[in-house]
Write a structure and sequence with these properties.
175 residues, alpha+beta, eight-stranded antiparallel beta barrel, two-stranded antiparallel ribbon, Hypothetical Protein Pfu-838710-001
């Protein structure tokens, strides 16, 4: 599976929520998430746990660049009975980089998932995931993402390439 992603800081959460509601013509889906990131030799690996105890194990590979970028990913659903055991195995075998808790507001606009995240201890962020069909190019997805950025009022100066964990457990932004 592939998508084009954009991540950005949100300066005015209420304004972007209003624009996302208008563009999606629907109410948001509220998702409480706890993401644990594990050390891997390439790409990124995270275990996402949901409020009901279930989860997803997600591997993705994407460049650390500002603006729209292609992300190749694979994910699998984990039952609530298996989440803690899998977390323990991955922590012991790979090591944990860090963890993030967030409340995510999800809007669907065409083939794009718009996430507005309130991240515990870090602030407000926006993420666009333009889910690409097999016959769609990176450039096509970038065009969709850039148009949505403009419609949502997201400026390039707010884009981040990555959120990195520091040795002391804090996070920093790669701009």
């Amino acid at each position: 599976m592939r998508n084009v992603e954009i991540k950005a800081r949100v300066q005015d959460k209420d304004a972007i929520i209003l624009r996302a509601k208008y563009l999606s013509k629907s109410k948001e889906t509220v998702i409480n998430q706890h993401d644990t990131f594990f050390k891997v030799s390439r790409g990124r690996l995270k275990l996402r746990q949901f409020e009901d105890g279930s989860g997803e194990l997600i591997f993705y590979d994407r460049p650390d660049t500002e603006g729209p970028k292609i992300s190749d990913y694979v994910k699998t659903t984990i039952s609530s009975k298996e989440v803690q055991g899998l977390t323990d195995v991955l922590a012991k075998s790979n090591g944990i980089i860090g963890a993030v808790k967030k409340v995510r507001l999800l809007y669907i606009i065409g083939q794009t998932r718009v996430h507005i995240d309130v991240v515990e201890g870090l602030g407000n962020f926006m993420e666009l995931e333009v889910v690409l069909n097999d016959d769609q190019s990176l450039e096509y997805g970038q065009g969709i993402a850039e148009k949505l950025m403009s419609e949502l009022g997201v400026q390039k100066k707010d884009c981040i390439s990555e959120l990195r964990s520091l040795a002391d457990g804090h996070w920093k932004f790669e701009l």
